[in-house]
Structures are given as structure tokens and as C-alpha cells.
């Protein structure tokens, strides 16, 4: 019985290689993301928050959940982005007690510029056919437990 536990916990070489490759991809992405953010005089956390807000206004608590950090950290990040004119606070139309953070026009333009400067993911993916990108998306969604048809 003890040998079954040991066997179940060991990782086969192919799985280990895939895990290492995923780690390398993630590390490269974050490295380039931090560099791109710095070129726009942003920290990585500021860039991620601005990127989220360029899609839609969000309550501060939801931003904290998405960024996996404390709400007080989000408040500080929003304060700094607001001081630069990239973000504004506004009341939530459905509940005026809740404050939404929203990207300003300048913030959305900066977020777009930041996305456009991220070549790491775009260039290697451009070398894949549409079918290969669809297959990769499906596999990643499956790994995350999401519906591959989404």
C-alpha cells in the first residue's frame, strides 16, 4: 500500500517537462510585462489593475480578488493611478454605497499601448496555425477546469 502512495506521487518525466515549460512561459510573460509596465512608468501591479479597468469599471473589492491582494493594497494602487489621471472613482449605479474604479480615456489608451508592446506571447503564437492556437486554447481551458467551447 505504501508503494502505491509513492507511485501516485511521483511525476512522470513528460509531465515534469510540461510543468517546467509552463513555468518558463509564465516567468517570461511576467518579466516582459514588468518591463513593459516600467516603460510606461507603472509598476506591474498598476499595469495589471489598469488593464482590468480598461475592460470594465470594477468595485475595489472585486479588483482585490482578481489581483489576489488585500483591498488596502488596491486602494493605494488606485490612488496612485488616479493621481496620474489614469483612473477615476465613481459611484456604482446599482448601489451608490459602492465605489467603482474606472479607467479614464487616457488610462484606456495607456492600457492599449501596454498590451500592444507585449510581443512575448503574440510573436510565438503567430507562428502557430489557427488550428494549433485553438487546440492550445482548448487544452489550457481544460487544465483550468473551464469549458473548452467558451
Automatic annotation (TrEMBL):
Signal peptide: none annotated. GO terms for biological process: response to stress. Keywords: DNA-binding, Transcription, Transcription regulation. Gene3D superfamilies: Winged helix-like DNA-binding domain superfamily/Winged helix DNA-binding domain. It comes from the Bacteria. The keyword Cell division does not apply. The keyword Transcription applies. InterPro entries: HTH_MarR-typ (IPR000835), MarR/SlyA-like (IPR039422), Tscrpt_reg_MarR-type_CS (IPR023187), WH-like_DNA-bd_sf (IPR036388), WH_DNA-bd_sf (IPR036390). GO terms for molecular function: DNA binding; DNA-binding transcription factor activity. Residues 15-145 form the HTH marR-type domain. SMART domains: HTH_MARR. It holds the Pfam family MarR. This is MarR family transcriptional regulator. It comes from Streptomyces phyllanthi.
Amino acid at each position: 500500500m505504501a508503494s502505491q502512495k509513492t507511485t501516485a506521487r511521483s511525476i512522470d518525466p513528460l509531465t515534469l517537462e510540461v510543468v517546467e515549460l509552463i513555468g518558463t512561459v509564465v516567468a517570461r510573460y511576467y518579466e516582459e510585462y514588468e518591463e513593459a509596465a516600467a516603460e510606461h512608468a507603472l509598476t506591474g501591479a498598476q499595469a495589471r489593475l489598469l488593464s482590468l479597468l480598461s475592460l470594465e469599471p470594477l468595485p475595489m473589492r472585486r479588483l482585490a480578488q482578481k489581483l489576489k491582494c488585500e483591498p488596502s493594497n488596491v486602494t493605494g494602487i488606485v490612488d496612485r493611478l488616479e493621481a496620474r489621471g489614469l483612473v477615476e472613482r465613481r459611484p456604482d449605479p446599482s448601489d451608490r454605497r459602492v465605489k467603482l474604479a474606472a479607467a479614464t480615456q487616457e488610462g484606456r489608451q495607456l492600457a492599449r499601448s501596454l498590451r500592444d508592446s507585449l510581443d512575448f506571447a503574440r510573436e510565438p503564437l503567430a507562428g502557430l496555425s489557427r488550428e494549433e492556437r485553438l487546440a492550445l486554447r482548448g487544452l489550457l481551458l481544460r487544465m483550468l477546469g473551464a469549458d473548452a467551447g467558451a
